[in-house]
Every structure is written in C-alpha cells, then in structure tokens.
Predict the structure.
Amino acid sequence: MVRIGPVIPKNFRDRVVAPSLLAADFSCIRDEVSRAIHAGADWMHLDVMDGHFVENISFGPAIVQAVHESNDIFLDVHLMISRPDRYLQQFITAGSDLISVHVEAEHDVAETLGRIRAAGCQAGLALNPATPISAVEPFLAEIDLLLCMTVVPGFGGQAFMPEVLEKITAAARLREAKGLSYHIQVDGGIDAATAARCYTAGANVMVAGSSTFRAPDMTAAVTSIRNA
Ligand code: DX5
Ligand code: ZN
C-alpha cells in the first residue's frame, strides 16, 4: 500500500468523523476499514486497551500496523494503557498518524507528548469524564487534539454522559483565551443527536463506534454525524 503520508488534521473548526474500530467485525478488519472509508469516514479511531488502565483488552501495535498497511486513512490511535511511554515507539513504528495518551496514566505527560511530536505524529491528550479540565491545562500548548471522553473508557456501546458538555465548552474557551488551535474530540455514545450537542459545546472531532459500524447504512450514519 503506497502511503501518500498522513492527512494532517484540518482546521479545528472543520468537522471530522472518526469511526471506532472497536465496534467493527474483527474477523475482517481490512474490509471493515475499507467499508468505513467508502462510508465517508475522515479518520479511523483505534482503541488500544491494556486490561489495566481500563477493564478490557482490545488490540496492540500489530493491528495498527495491519490497518496502516491495508488501507489509506488517517489513523487516530487512542492509548488506554497505563504506560504509554513504554509502548509509544511501537505505535509510532506501526504507522499511527495521531496518538492520544491519557493524562491519568502513569507517565511523564509532557515528555510523552514531546516524543509523539518529535516522531512526526500529531499529539493528543485524553481525559476521563471525572477528570477536571485543570488536569490538562498545563499541556494544552503541547497538543494537536484534546480528547474529552464522554463515557468511562473501556467499552463501546455505553450511554453518552451529558455532564461532559460543560468541560468541552471550557476547553474551547481555554483554546480561545490562550490563542491555541488544538482540535476537541469527543468519544463515547456519539450519534447524530449527541454529536449536535457536542458541536454546539465546541467539539469538532466525533468518534463513533456503535452508531457507525453497527448502523444498517454506515454512509447515512457517518453523514448524519457530520451534518448534525
Ligand atoms: C471507549 C472507546 C470509544 C468507544 C466508542 O473506551 O474509547 O472509542 O469505542 O464506542 P461507542 O461509539 O459505541 O460508544
Ligand atoms: Zn476511543
């Protein structure tokens, strides 16, 4: 697969729809990613879980590499792992275009973000619903994307947590006040209805697993989220 290089995330005001592979049929990942591309997906969201930071185990760098080699789409890798610093190089080598790490994980956040950017990847910082925006404020100038989890991480198919909306608005206000340009991504329970609320609150990157891969018409689902 000849790569034309990562599609650099668009302006933070542009809408991005990123289906989550976690909701796909793992028995045919190549075809599922291809299906998402044909349905209009902008990015592919890859949920890496270690069974320690979250109560689930999903997949590792080998799957990221397989997707990288079998389809040409921007790979948005979400590391829900306790030691992202320990495994970072493997995800970079596997072909990630953007790597998000959790502020709650056991690592030197600034150092990890610096390594992601030094490798030529986009750097994302994720925070759980219960984590206040103050926890990520020191790092906002070092990131390309802020991932505001709208469910407790670990599983797809959970209900959207509306209490996160005010955090999204706070993140957008901080971006404005500091003259920064990071994307604001939401992840968990996103469909057209919840996406509309998140756009209004200030988010522009919508991660959606169940509502896209498990929709009867994936193109209609992706389009409805983009146009919500
Ligand atoms: C949860 C993951 C999400 C999840 C989204 O820990 O980070 O990306 O797969 O799945 P849905 O859209 O089904 O809530
Ligand atoms: Zn995710």
Summary: The chain has one domain: 16-226. Residues 20, 22-23, 45, 47, 78, 80, 151, 153-154, 156-158, 187-190, 207-211 surround D-xylitol-5-phosphate (ligand 1) (CB under 6 Å).
